[in-house]
Design a protein that fits this description.
homodimer; alpha+beta; 5 strands; about 35% helix; about 15% strand; globular; DNA-binding
Chain lengths: ~180, ~180
DNA sequence: CAGTATCCTGTCCGATACTG
DNA sequence: CAGTATCGGACAGGATACTG
């Protein structure tokens, strides 16, 4: 029972972590977003051990983030391409990239995002699609979504949902013995 | 030598993962962004074992993401508050949140971001701060930053830097000749 | 209440060797 | 070339007991 399945949680962040929580998985997806598709491409660019790569790749396929596709028959060959779900992970990568660049680049930013045409560096921010206003905590908060309100009766750790209580934060009874 | 230190890599994503790569760490930061500061708040809202919490908390402090602050002397009491670096992690959380909501919410979105005043749900996107244009791969690409160009002579796996080769995308060769 | 100390299990990950 | 098989170490994570 090593890892409590985060998927049990209602929090979408936890659910996501259940799919790509491992270090390599994220880096593999990053490479895939760069266009890599084949085993040895990942192996070489990441310097990952082949068995680990096999495992992570299989995990990502099972999680629905990558799709394994046979692209050659005579010698059976497969390629790994991102699903829509995998491609949708890009904003997370970009956000992580920006964060890393800002705080963990002692010698300066070694890698930056640039506009493909102008070549001008980009500065990634997360905004609301409609208002285009930055999503900062002062202006936005998390709330129960449609699916949650439909079953508010259920007793759960609200914070684990990603739901911030507006008031202080109630003491959450949580029996340590589920069953 | 269990985990190859990702910090060795020049890739900012890898460096970031070196700091908050563990599952719990991310969830702890998420809770901290919600305003939690004390040990038992984290413990209860996450349902995490106390020793794990101690370890992750210590790790986050060492990574410079949380700061441990004594807020009471008579009974020595500490609180854990986000550093600037930790607060800057919020966009990543938001992006992950959106991703999880989009793809792993079978029964509908249980948690959504809303505008604090209007209550209207927000739809997070990553854009360039200046142009406000969405950062999609068709329009943007990664490139060597200032720190990288200064030592281009060094031989490294380019992709591990997060540097995409300018041409179409190196892996995109659709050559039907596997080997 | 706010943690620390111990012990244990699972598994992430690396290294290496092997196969069609 | 594109992986699979096997081995072993380190540590995340869980359960429990204990302390000021």
């Amino acid at each position: 029972m090593q890892r409590k399945s985060f998927s049990k949680m209602q929090c979408p962040v936890a659910r996501g972590l259940d799919r790509i929580g491992e270090w390599w998985s994220i880096l593999i997806v990053r490479e895939a977003l760069h266009g890599l598709t084949r085993f040895d491409q990942f192996e070489q660019s990441l310097g990952i051990a082949p068995n680990m790569l096999t495992r992570r790749l299989a995990g990502l396929v099972k999680a629905g983030i990558l799709e394994k596709r046979r692209y050659s028959d005579r010698p059976p060959r497969y390629e790994y391409v991102l699903t829509e779900c995998g491609r949708d992970f890009q904003p997370v990568i970009i956000a992580m990239h920006a964060w890393g660049n800002r705080h963990f680049a002692p010698e300066g930013q070694s890698v930056v995002l640039v506009n493909a045409r102008t070549g001008k560096p980009a500065d990634p921010v997360v905004v609301d699609r409609n208002s285009r206003r930055p999503l900062v905590d002062s202006e936005f908060r998390v709330a129960a979504g449609p699916a949650a309100v439909a079953r508010t009766r259920r007793k759960m750790a609200a914070s684990a949902w990603g739901i911030a209580q507006n008031p202080p934060l109630p003491a959450k009874r949580k029996s340590r013995t589920p069953a």
